[in-house]
Amino acid sequence: MSEDTRGDAPAEGRDGTRPMYVERLWAPPWAWLLPPALVSVVAIAYGSAYGTSLGWLLFAVGTVIGWCALVAWSTRLRVDDRVFRAGRARLPLRYAGPPEALTGDDFRTAVRSGDARAYVVVRPWRTRSGVSVPVTDPEDPHPRWLVASRHPQRLATALESARAQALSDDPAE
Predict the structure, then answer these.
(1) How far apart are CA 166 and CA 43, in angstroms?
(2) Rounded to an integer, what is the distance from CA 12 to the centroid of its chain?
(3) 123-145, pLDDT tens digit by residue?
(4) What is the pTM of this model?
C-alpha cells in the first residue's frame, strides 16, 4: 500500500487528523425564538379552522423545521494539521498566508469594501470580528478569506501555528 493511499501524505482532498481549533457560528438566542413565534401564527389560524390537534402538530413540526434550518445555517470553523475549513470550503495550510485578527470597524470595513474576489464567510448575526487570511495559491480565484469568528485572536493564533507546522512538514517546500 502506498503512502498516499494510507492517508499519511498531505493531499488536497483530505483534512488533517489533529484539530487545533474548532468553532461553530451559532445563531444568537433571539434567533431561536423566531421559528416558534412565526409558526405560531399559522398554527393558531389552522388550529382554529381545523382543530387544535392540527394546530399543535403544525406548531411542533414548523418549530423543529425552523430550528433545523438554524443548525444548517451555522458555520463550522476548523483548523487542523493540514487545512483550514470554513463551512464546506477548504484552504490547505500550505496556501494560507499569515492570518490577521480583525475586530470592530476593521472587520466591517474589510467585509464591506474589501476585494470583491475575497471568499467571505459571514452570518447576519456574526459580523463584529473575524480573521483575514491571504491565499498564496496562484490558481485560487480568491486572494483572501474573510471569516467571521467570536474569537478572532485565538483563530489567528491557531492558524499561524498550524500553518508553521504544515510548512515545516511539507516536503515540497
Answers:
(1) 54
(2) 19
(3) 887 678 999 999 999 999 999 99
(4) 0.77
| Backbone phi and psi for residue 123, each to the nearest 5 degrees, phi listed first | -105, 150
The amino acid sitting at 14 is: R
**Rounded Cα distance, 49 and 40, in Å:** 14
Contact present, 87 and 76 (Cβ < 8 Å):
yes
β-strand partners of 119: 145
- The SS3 of residue 99 is coil
Burial category of 114 from C-beta neighbours within 10 Å (exposed 0-12, middle 13-18, buried 19 and up) = middle
Contact 155, 100 (CB under 8 A): no
Q: For the chain, how many residues are written?
A: 173
